[in-house]
Amino acid sequence: MNAKPHRATALALALCLAGLAPLAACDQPRVPEPRAQPAPAAPAQSPDLKDRSSPDPAIAPALDPAIAALDEAEAREQLRALRPATTRAQTLRFTDPLLARPEAAEIFAARLARPGVPAEERAALAEALPRCGGAWTEALVDAAAIEADPAVRATLISGLRRAAPPLAIPALTLALDDRDPEVRRAAAEVAGWVPAVGDGLRPQLRALLSDRSRPVATEATRALGLLGDAPAFPAIADQLRVDDLELRVEALHALERIDAARALEHPAVRAALIDHDPRVRAAAERLRAAASPAR
């Protein structure tokens, strides 16, 4: 404890008692000396986005300390030689922690573009790109633009579900008009499951409702239902007259999400309630329940 204030108070009291100090001064309350305030802590510095290993920090792969300690040249050499593992389903998949290295996306994209790589390995490279460190979105988009194999191209497009929407939408716009139906279907699937992406692709998805490929039309129907796209309601309702079970069931689910009460008044939905197929009837019953919730 600091003794200086007590000595000053005792001295002032002695002076007052001796008549050497004015009484007014003795009557003044003692004002405590101000204490030094600690300096405010400096705000935490946010990490530089350029140093992150993915355009989206939320999905940046974790980098193991042992992998991070590798010299860049050594890491690149190991990534070029990395082999995929065989899964229980007898497919190839890259699972090595080296994928988190910031050089991984660049090297895997280069391996994917190399001539003579077996189709199964190229599919594994395409599937791994969204899990790579580095600018994987740009590498994936560039690879999809030049990829000749439709199956690999579809795998690349499916990986865009993890990309930032501004980067994904231009590539998906092209993919929705791809010559191969599996690529169009993959693009519609991404648009449905990522609303921030699908919102920018609604016109293209509506155009796919009449796609010559039923799986593509079915996926576009699902996507527009998930997006709650009211302008697509009439075209989706018309799909209930198509002789395709999956498409009709998905159309009922989409109408339920868009406007169940309106859908229940549609003649095609009424007919679905007594359809010969149990899956169609079940979907129509679910729609009716959603239109008339229990109170």
Put the structure in a nutshell:
The protein has 17 helices and 2 strands. It is mainly α and 295 residues long. The termini are far apart.
Give the topology.
Blueprint: H1 4-17, H2 23-27, H3 65-68, H4 72-81, E1 85-86, E2 92-93, H5 104-113, H6 119-128, H7 136-146, H8 150-158, H9 165-175, H10 181-193, H11 195-198, H12 202-207, H13 214-227, H14 233-238, H15 245-264, H16 267-272, H17 278-291
Antiparallel strand pairs: 1-2
Explained architecture:
- With 295 residues, the protein is mostly helical.
- It has two domains: 57-163; 196-295, Leucine-rich Repeat Variant.
- The protein has 17 helices and two strands.
- The chain has helices at 4-17, 23-27, 65-68, 72-81, 104-113, 119-128, 136-146, 150-158, 165-175, 181-193, 195-198, 202-207, 214-227, 233-238, 245-264, 267-272, 278-291; strands at residues 85-86, 92-93.
- It has a two-stranded antiparallel ribbon.
- Helix 5 (104-113) runs antiparallel to helix 6 and helix 6 (119-128) packs parallel to helix 8.
What is the percentage of strand-forming residues? under 5%
Structural class: mainly alpha
Q: Mean pLDDT, rounded to whole units?
A: 84
Strand order of the largest sheet: 1-2
Using only CA atoms, what is the Rg?
A: 33 Å
User: In total, how many beta strands?
Assistant: 2
Number of domains: 2
Helix content: 55-70%
Q: Measure the end-to-end span.
A: 71 Å
Largest sheet: 2 strands, antiparallel
Principal-axis shape equals: elongated
In DSSP terms (H or I, runs of 4 or more residues), the helix count works out at 17
Series of H and E elements: HHHHEEHHHHHHHHHHHHH
Low-pLDDT stretches are 1-58
